Amino acid sequence: MRFAAFAVASAAFAAAACGRESRGYQRHSYSTRNMPSASAEVKLPVGLWEKIEAVQAGGAKDGVQTEFMAVKVFLIEKNRGALGGRNHELLFGEGGGELDLKDFASERSGTFLIAFEAALDGEGTGPRVFYLSNAVRRHLERESVGAGCKGYYEITSFFSKAMKTGGFQVNTTAGRHVSALAGTYFFAIPRGEKLHLAQVTVKDSRYRPLHCRR
């Protein structure tokens, strides 16, 4: 099955993610950018699509009605210069899109955080989040990094905790950020009879061998 390329619109959406409390990534100032209307097909395993469909209770029997929602991505420097000296707020239109970290992460080694915000106006419930890995599993020194080329997981609990504390922290040394992040993140929020969806594919095209699908 193919998860059809999500349509990407230019309009940004009003932030209301996961309730009204202040989140770690919301305490920073940002350089804001509207991301281009580009999309790519993602080959979605049947089992993963079934998990996403199941978010809409009772909807899987006759098929789920879907609608796209917008999503924001925040990139926050932890080490000065890791993101070229600034934090970035990236606005993706309805359905999401693709983020190539080569456009934001410096060539120098350093640490930054990445946060995602997907929500509907006035919606207090956070999204269910699923991750389809595109990171080759490899060994660096004594650690294994990368989730492998066939893995997909629900990461809602881990995601929610990370967003409250500022996002996922990654380091660019030896391409560790690619092994930690490469893949597609799916966001699903049920409302009424529709399942609202968005996706963000994260890659760094400078490190093609570290990706399963290039």
What does this structure look like?
The strands form four sheets. Strands 4, 7, 9, 12, 14 and 15 form a six-stranded mixed β-sheet that branches. This protein has a five-stranded mixed β-sheet with strand order 2-6-5-8-13. It is built from three helices and 15 strands. It has 214 residues and is mainly β. It starts with a strand and ends in an 11-residue tail after the last strand. Strand 10 and strand 11 form a beta hairpin. 40% of the residues are buried.
Produce the secondary structure layout.
Blueprint: E1 2-3, E2 31-34, E3 42-43, H1 46-53, E4 65-68, E5 71-77, E6 88-92, E7 96-100, E8 111-118, E9 128-133, E10 138-140, E11 143-145, E12 152-154, H2 156-164, E13 168-171, H3 176-181, E14 183-191, E15 194-203
Parallel strand pairs: 2-6, 4-15, 7-15
Antiparallel strand pairs: 1-3, 5-6, 5-8, 8-13, 9-12, 9-14, 10-11, 14-15
